[in-house]
Amino acid sequence: MTTRRILLVNGPNLNLLGSREPEVYGTATLADVERLTADAAAAEGFAIRAIQSNHEGVLIDAIHAAREDCTAIVINPGGLTHTSVALRDALTGVALPFAEVHISDVYAREEFRHHSYLDDVATVRVVGEGVDGYASAVRQLAALIP
Ligand code: CA2
To answer: How far apart are the CA of 138 and the centre of ligand 1, in A?
Structure first.
């Protein structure tokens, strides 16, 4: 049987998790997020490949590569959520089911965070559930994948 794999993508500045702004993003680190997502995925029978980058093109290349060997994508695009048509085009281009995750409640924050270039094309959205939202996203995606 082929391995079922989820690509976990964390966008710009999420490498700072756990070190700054704990009142907004909590105290978990990026390594914690990758571990809890891998645990949730394993419980559903999926492996994960995790990437974090501060560079839009690197994220887009990783999304393109997922076409080869991934079943779904869990992505927290960071600030690119609110700016990037190119990231949207990459996600729609590979046509894999994907979950858009935001640790904070973007709707309770500045107006510019209320708009997402992904929200109408995401398969699943999890907003404002802290880092546990990544596990929730995995479970919701897994429930949709035969
Ligand atoms: O709530 C989220 O997960 C966000 O996607 C996080 C982005 C923000 O631009 C979105 O509006 C909402 C920012 C990620 C930056 O993460 C940091 C973590 C710790 C310290 C500083 C930044």
So the answer is: 19
- The helix-helix angle for 85-94 and 56-69 (nearest 10°) equals 10
pLDDT in tens, 29-65: 999 999 999 999 999 999 999 999 999 999 999 999 9
Establish whether 117 is a catalytic residue. Answer: no
Which residue stretches of the chain are H helix? Answer: 22-25, 30-43, 56-69, 85-94, 132-144
Rg of the chain on CA atoms, in Å: 14
* Distance, CA of 71 to CA of 73 (rounded, Å): 7
Pocket of ligand 1 (CB under 6 A): 13-14, 16-17, 20-21, 25, 76, 78-79, 81, 102-104, 106, 113
Q: Find the 2 Cα to ligand 1 centroid distance in Å.
A: 34
3 state DSSP class of 6: strand
Going by CA atoms, what residue is nearest to atom 16 of ligand 1?
A: 14
* Model pLDDT for residues 88-114, shown as the tens digit of each residue: 999 999 999 999 999 999 999 999 999
Q: pTM above 0.70?
A: yes
